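Progress narrative, work stream C.
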Amino acid sequence: MIASKIDPSEEQREMIKSLQRSFYDKISTREADLEKAKSQKFKPGTYDEITKHIKNLRSHYEKLEHLLRFIENNPVTLEQLWPLTDKLQNYLKTDDTEDLEAELEQKYKDFNLPISKIMSNFPALNEEDQEVKKVLGKKLETKQMPSVVIKSESKPVEKGWNTKEALMKIAGKVEKVVEDIQDDEEEPEKIDLDWSKKQIDFAFNYPIRNDESAKSSLQMVLTPYPGHPSYPKKPMINPGLFSKFDLDTLFFIFYHQHGTYQQFLAAKELKAQGWIYHKKFQTWFQRSGEPKLTAQDREKGTFLYFDYETSWSQRRKADFEFEYSFLENDLL
């Protein structure tokens, strides 16, 4: 067994990132509901309710990003984070979120996070863009430029008529009409400079770490390095050998030989050694002691998990709730 490395700050980051993944999944689900609401008949107001819920979910996702930066530069304990993370988990499980919004705003204040006007990294809804275009189109239609009527008298055209002077007079009338229309238009919304400065200061004080933006380098080597002609071209697979491999080798085979029979045998051996696979996090877990809470669809307790993305080692996660719906059972 590889020695477990317990890093409180890493556990805090993992806890927040796990919540971010849950919020991202929830946003994707609600956006799918929004598409259904467009094509199917729903109760009146359903579309607006889903749209509002998506905006709130995006806002909380962004606040978690701010919180992730905050804990990089401020000492925070897990006990301080739990009240907020518990509220956010309840927020994801319930559809009636109005009461929780005020409670969450109070929790955000404890970490000096921006409460309102959170800008989302998610793209705006297409439907909203269409509505904006419709509104702008109506405004332009109602403010059409009035035509300039020039009455002409039946007089003979005088010799030496100054065309340039006449055009300048017409242009002056048109310019005056355009100025009148511009005066009638509403003034654009003023930019909140104080709020913008606050956002810039926050981003400067809590920058994103390099390892947070790094992507996983896991890949399958399709063209192996050429060996000696006497070596076998195909691997000799003996399922019995996998029981003799250590955990590091089994995890390496599982994460770096995707879609192969070796990956299946490695997963089968890991399960035989008491490891369970979480389909949502794509991570192997193992119970570390008796669970604190057991239910028909989940259990809660302390688990070991294999961190294949950052440290390639085992870590301990306390008070983790494992939902059985994410348990992989296809290895039987």
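Work stream C, second folded protein:
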Amino acid sequence: MQGVVTQCLSNGMFRVKLENGFQVIAHISGKIRRNFIRILLGDLVVVELSPYDLTRGRIIFRLKQNNPKDLERTK
């Protein structure tokens, strides 16, 4: 599910507004953390929601806004 980062919280946590209008708190996945990929305010990201708590998720991919290939990859 895609969303936009609206707020940067502490310890790699972010508030993300999803495409369906809901807001979730998401943390960075280990792959993104290991590769030092920076997540900034306003970035378009792909979020994997927790099956146990739908207000929490994990950021698994950062989309580049000027690259249409990234948008095709997430579908």
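Helices lie at 30-34, 68-73. No further action is required on this item.
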